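Contributing new records

If you add data, match the layout below exactly. Sequence lines come first and carry their own label; structure lines follow with theirs. Keep one chain per record. Anything else will be rejected by the validation script.
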Amino acid sequence: MLSFVVPDDGARQLRRTHLLLTVQSVVVLLVAVNRLTRLTTGYVAANEFLRWVDLLNMLVLPVVSVLALYALRRVLRYPSPALGRRADVALAVVFVVGVYLLAAGYGDHEVTNYLHIRFCDVRPFGATDQLCQIIVYNDDQFSHLVFFIGFILLSLSVLLLPPLFPALRQASGRHLAALAANAVVFALGIFANLAFEELGLDLYVVAIVALVSAGLWWRRRREPLLIYYVIAYWLGLLGTAAYQLTHRA
């Protein structure tokens, strides 16, 4: 039987976890700037095939986010009996499928969203011809469905690692503060995406991740990653609910 020795490397694991969660926080802030300001609304090329906001959302920011998530998975997985077992391999497959679907959703959405805004929203009666109906359907429905399935799979590929690979050091003191700080930034990103728009699939996706994270955290309340997810998703969800209730009353 193979024997595994877990190195006493909890401090390094926590430091790297904080660093990668900070990268995600920076991405969330850049996404907000990209979406909510006019800094990137110029055209990428003379033929006006895309705006910078579309290109950055499709090819730059998601790549950074996925790479940080991949690195986080590497940090969380350490030599143990669970390494390479069926559950570990299954989560790796879930991660790969999630990356593909997330990328497909982004690609479909950013292109059709640009075409929708530029050519279909300006029509006096909306998307009345078949071309615009196709563009709007891809923008508002199909791309969202593909994206959110990928998003859920990516979240699960990370959330389900702590039961297999418990953290080498539990969160306490300044580490809790660092986790909470990054979680608040992510929660603000959730709030910005949900609170000011008509609620749809995105609300259910956030609720699913929030419920899964809460269930896992209830069993392992000092796990750094689970603390981060619980704070980020529940704070974003409850903040959105409070805003929607007070502004629609």
